[in-house]
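Q&A log
Question type: sequence-to-structure
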Amino acid sequence: MHHAYLFTGPPGVGRRTLALRFAQAVLCEDPPTPGAFCRRCRSCRYLEAMLTRDEDVHPDVSLVRPRGRALGIQVDQVREVRQILARSPRMGRYRVAIFTDFDRATPAAANALLKTLEEPGDSALLLLTATSAETVLPTVASRCEQVLLRPMMIEDLARALVQRFPQEEDRAMHVAAWAAGRPGYALRLLRDADAYARHAAWLEDIPRLLQSPMWERFAYARQLVKGLSRSDLEKPLLVWAAFWRDALHLSMGHFLPLFHPERRALLESLARQIPAEQVYGVLQHLLDAVVRLHRYVNPRLLLEDVLLKWPRARALWLPTEQEAPVAGLGG
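Response status: OK
Response body:
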């Protein structure tokens, strides 16, 4: 086994879950087979609590994520964990440190982890998660075994969700598409009514914003920033990016599954009005905004800049209450 692993993939694909399950397999006190975990021993129960309730209860596992309103892991957090990893394990064979979203760690924090990656000690295991290896300091990525996670096929994810939640069949089918094949995000939308309602609301805001003058878009940006932290502001940006991705494929005549099939008529109405080159520009600007968000750009100015890029649309096809299968499901 390697001493350090880097799990990469899009947010919501299951990077953190895989890291915690990895730790559970390594620390299980009574594994049924090599590399498996029993879910019954004391160590497994602690890890289950960390998975389901986000509680730091395992004495040998440190889950490191940004504190407070900080966007990324700070250097003092890495130094604290380095001291913990230097101690002998209390229950099992390893001390495990899980660093989530390490691509957002400050440069000082990333550099502080290098020495531990180079000389981890016999009982230290480091698990990092990031969007991609390219977003992590190259000297960090090169010292880790890299595991790339990709989204599932939407049809496969929908089938799996229906098997697990048969009473939620209708919602599971379109949640799989909304999540773009990311099982972690799909489960969050199914289990958390508030998360579902927010996702639906951000989608429903799009046609209104496209027909609004700039002052109304700026007022919307001001209200949205008031209600969301900097890290949470990434969520509507990614929801909108998925919508514009659908619009781009329809504009170019691509026969690919849509992330928002329930909004096909709206997307086709938009594609008829706006050239594919302009749609691509909007999509690229959104994806760039996600990157800039994590570089401490002013959130309100960032969102205003995003909405300035959106074209002004004429009359769009809008579903009636009876025609919109998703309307109202969020609460």
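Response note: Residues 193-210 form the longest helix (18 residues).
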